[in-house]
Design a protein that fits this description.
The complex is a heterodimer of chains A (about 375) and B (about 300). By secondary structure, chain A is α+β, with helices and mostly antiparallel strands. Chain A has two domains: about 5-225, Rossmann fold, CATH 3.40.50.300; about 240-360, Nucleic acid-binding proteins (OB fold (Dihydrolipoamide Acetyltransferase, E2P)). Chain A has helices at about 40-50, 90-100, 105-120, 135-150, 165-185, 195-200, 220-225, 230-235, and strands at about 5-15, 15-25, 30-35, 55-60, 65, 75-80, 155-160, 185-190, 205-210, 210-215, 240-245, 255-260, 265-270, 280-285, 290, 300-305, 310-320, 320-325, 340-345, 350. The two termini of chain A are about 45 Å apart. In chain B, helix 4 (about 65-70) crosses helix 15, helix 10 (about 165-190) packs across helix 12 (about 210-235) and helix 12 runs antiparallel to helix 15. The termini of chain B are far apart. Classes of the chains: A alpha+beta (about 375), B mainly alpha (about 300).
């Protein structure tokens, strides 16, 4: 097991630069999730760590050793692919033991390790089957087993659950997490699914367009997203964003306390000092911080009611766009009925509309 | 009593019911005419003596005579040996070179399609042109090969005229002609290899040669078998190259089965015996196909 250190890493294909200076430290035994929309560079970064993609600039070190020039096989990392990438000509036993037999491990030792790994992943009954005879979930387990059996320094996961159906995905999510708690191996996990990222990560790394937007523990990122992009990407249903302008005495020291939305509605804000009146702002609040309230300033007809069982989401078409509020699970509402919404003031996040950055960083409360 | 109208309706219904069988009729007729009849005729010829007298052919049923001719044919055993040597050596070389080229060009980062286009050129050349071309290149006095030997100080060699080299020279031309065929089949297979599986092998710690022997080649086996069977069947029936280059000579040193058949049919006018030989050739090729199929099936269910 080892720490992974990524500093100023760049990647370009010809003239196009797809990775623009990535810095990331993954501690020994940590489970880090790289998350972002497709094309953000997360898979490329993972493949660079594995050695499957050349590094155009910067340095990657595993366990303190620079690996830029090393072949994949010299890096002692294991990777689980989205397509599982099992060896179709080998049975489960052969797949699990492949890496060991490449290292000329004695057959009895390989057999013992395979059995042990199969035990852990509940594959004991399947050792003689070929990949084409396995279900998607079973293949996924074999791919995991192939990684575990080697006891590598680092585990790399490239969207390993994307090809499973929803139910199995949730089960495997928990299983990978508990496996990590048992093995304590350094793991870097790539996904586009923010729920997967939230639930599995010790720390999550939100990437966008070849850059890291934010690194932090899941709740930290959820509660205090650095940018509007992160705020929108993390959380389902998505965060509500209301655009408008700061209102208050022009340029004075008096705290600005209002936001005039684009449709002209006045929202009260937490007190912000030194905010210039007229500045373009985006106020964001999560569905759980938007309440159905008879006197609320945001009004409109209900468009959709989503009942998830343990909670119910109400979508309301306001002049400032469709907003989503978390409501009591038994709420009796029908589409078309007019309602009012009020944001929880203290939970409101403010972003500069132009830069997309959260305001707290530049202004003292 | 059924009225004529009702009866007609019954016939139409019956025709409708059996329509899909009737629909096959043209295909069955074509098959019988184009494939069935010639084969039956060949079998009939194989047990007959056919002679031409007074401008007419006369068939006599003499099942034993063709067998006697077969046993008495002194050229047959060198011809069979030549054919086996030819098929074995030429196809083996073609497979090895074709596979190596497919792997090498498959690993190229750029210029793949140009390389592929260049590679398949020999298939496009008409066999007669190949024959003439190589006949000139094999020429004893001014041929390309002897010039090269001259440059490195070796006396000219009679490529097509010496019994020990003639078959080898034909094999050389065959390899040049048919490597692209193997290459094309295997290149398509190489391009279709699952990339992530090979990457998994790299991460799992496979060296380049381990990747080749333990992942790439096993994954290519189905394509290799297909190429091998196709090529072996075709090689069994090679005619043009021998006919054009050596005419089977000197003596029978480069005579292959097809050329021998040609001689039996058209030079010795032994139609019945020729038919018997043809039947044997077909049986040999069929046996090859059956074995290949058995091997592939065993591989698939392994």
């Amino acid at each position: 097991m080892a720490a992974v250190s990524i500093s100023r890493v760049e990647k370009s294909f010809g003239q196009t630069s797809v990775m623009k200076g990535i810095d990331l430290e993954v501690a020994d035994g940590e489970f880090v999730v790289l998350v972002g929309a497709s094309g953000c560079g997360k898979s490329t970064l993972l493949r660079m760590i594995a050695g499957l993609e050349a590094i155009s600039g910067g340095e990657i070190a595993i366990g303190g050793q620079r690996v830029n020039e090393m072949e994949p096989r010299e890096r002692d990392v294991a990777m689980v692919f989205q397509s599982y990438a099992l060896y179709p000509h080998l049975d489960v036993r052969g797949n699990l033991g492949f890496s060991l037999s490449l290292r000329r491990t004695a057959p009895p030792a390989i057999e013992a390790k395979c059995r042990q790994t199969a035990e852990v992943l509940d594959l004991s009954q399947l050792l003689d089957r070929f990949p084409r005879q396995l279900s998607g979930g079973q293949r996924q387990r074999v791919a995991m087993g192939r990684a575990i059996v080697r006891q590598p320094k680092v585990f790399l996961f490239d969207e390993p659950l994307s090809n499973l159906d929803a139910k199995l995905r949730i089960a495997m999510r928990t299983e990978i997490r508990s496996l990590h708690q048992r093995l304590g191996a350094t793991s870097i996990y790539v996904t586009h699914d923010q729920v997967e990222a939230m639930t599995m990560a010790d720390r999550m790394v939100v990437m966008n367009d070849g850059r890291i937007e934010q690194v932090g523990a899941p709740l930290e990122v959820y509660d205090r997203p650095d940018t509007l992009h992160v705020a929108r990407f993390i959380g389902a249903p998505s965060i509500n964003v209301i655009e408008g302008r700061a209102a208050g005495p022009a340029g004075g020291p008096v705290p600005v306390a209002r936001l005039i939305t684009n449709s002209g509605i006045e929202l009260e804000l937490p007190a912000w000092r030194g905010l210039r009146s007229g500045r373009a702002l985006s106020a964001a609040c999560r569905p759980e911080h938007l309440q159905l309230h008879p006197g609320g300033p945001l009004r409109g007809p209900v468009s959709v009611v989503e009942r998830l069982g343990h909670e119910t989401y109400v979508y309301v078409d306001t002049p400032d766009g469709r907003l989503c509020a978390l409501a009591d699970r038994n709420i009796d509402l029908r589409p078309g009925r007019p309602v009012s919404l009020a944001p929880v003031q203290d939970a409101m996040l403010l972003f500069d509309t132009e830069t997309g950055r959260r305001l707290e960083a530049e202004i003292n409360r | 009593m059924t009225t004529p109208a009702a009866r007609r309706r019954g016939i139409v219904e019956a025709l409708n019911r059996s329509f899909r069988h009737w629909g096959l009729l043209p295909a069955v007729v074509l098959f019988a005419l184009l494939t069935g009849y010639p084969i039956v005729n060949l079998l009939r010829m194989a047990v007959s003596t056919i002679e031409f007298r007074d401008g007419r052919e006369s068939w006599t049923f003499t099942p034993g005579r063709n067998w006697e001719l077969l046993l008495a044919d002194s050229a047959l055993s060198p011809v069979v040996r030549n054919t086996l040597v030819f098929v074995l050596v030429a196809v083996t070389l073609e497979m090895l070179i074709g596979l190596a080229l497919a792997l090498a060009i498959g690993a190229m980062e750029r210029g793949k399609s140009l390389a592929r286009a260049l590679m398949i050129l020999p298939i496009l050349v008409p066999p007669v042109a190949i024959g003439s071309m190589f006949k000139l290149m094999f020429n004893h006095d001014f041929g390309f090969f002897n010039q090269i030997l001259g440059w490195i100080g070796i006396a000219p060699v009679s490529w097509l005229g010496s019994p020990s080299l003639a078959l080898l020279s034909v094999i050389l031309v065959d390899v040049w002609h048919w490597v692209p065929f193997i290459f094309l089949i295997l290149f398509a297979a190489v391009e279709g290899l699952p990339r992530e599986v090979l990457e998994a092998a790299q991460v799992d710690g496979a060296t380049r040669s381990q990747q080749l022997w333990r992942v790439t080649l096993p994954l290519l086996v189905p394509a290799i078998v297909v190429a091998l069977v196709f090529r072996a069947v075709l090689a069994f029936k090679t005619f043009d190259e021998v006919f054009l280059l050596t005419g089977g000579g000197p003596g029978t040193s480069s005579e292959l089965l097809s050329l021998h058949l040609y001689k039996v049919f058209f030079e010795q006018n032994q139609l019945g015996y020729g038919a018997l030989l043809s039947v044997f050739t077909i049986a040999g090729v069929l046996a090859l196909l059956v074995i290949a199929r058995w091997v592939t099936r065993r591989w698939a269910t392994r």
